[in-house]
Amino acid sequence: MAKPDRLARLDAQREDLETDYRATLIAALEKTAAGALGLFDRTPDRRVRAAIAPTIDSLTEMGDDIAAMRQRLMMEPFALHRDFFAARGPVSASAVGEQKEARLWLDRLTTPSS
Q1: Can you list the residues of the chain whose pLDDT is less than 70?
Q2: Which long-range contacts (CB under 8 A, 24 or more apart) does 78-84 make?
Q3: What number of CA atoms fall less than 13 Å from residue 46's CA on the CB side?
Q4: Which of 54, 7, 55 is CA-nearest to residue 28?
Q5: Per-residue pLDDT tens over the stretch 22-37
Q6: What distances in angstroms separate CA 86 from CA 6, 40, 80, 90, one per listed residue?
Q7: Of 14, 25, 27, 36, nearest in space to 80 by CA
């Protein structure tokens, strides 16, 4: 009976960590929507990258921990982490700016699902 208890605790920890991840990402998206750059890593400016680095590091660490938990629980990968990091990096010149991209992400994350 010990293993099911451990797995239940691990699943509860995973849920808490995913909630923390989502809250951290939403806070960063709100700052970006208000004009702070760097979250989507679209500028080569070292100062901008250094300013956002603690947030990116935190999201990466949480995402890695969540991935390990989900693998142990035999669950699908954490889509929010995967999708967010896939959206970072260089884009075409016609792509929307970071502020608009952040607003789109906020809409996606704060709209209640039906």
Answers
A1: 1, 113-114
A2: 78/18, 78/21, 80/18, 80/21, 80/22, 80/25, 80/109, 81/21, 84/25, 84/59
A3: 0
A4: 55
A5: 999 999 999 999 999 9
A6: 32, 10, 10, 11
A7: 25
Reading the block at residue 70, the tokens are 């989900």
pTM of the entire structure?
Answer: 0.91
Whether the Cβ atoms of residue 3 and residue 73 lie closer than 8 Å to each other:
no
Structure tokens of 109?
Answer: 């994350």
Phi-psi region of 86 (alpha: psi -120 to 50; beta: other; left: phi over 0): alpha
Q: What is the amino acid identity at position 5?
A: D
Length of the chain: 114
What gap in Å lies between CA 78 and CA 66, rounded to an integer? 7
Cβ neighbours, 10 Å, residue 66 = 22
Give the E-state strand segments of 25-106 in sequence order. Answer: none
Q: How far apart are the first and last CA of the chain?
A: 36
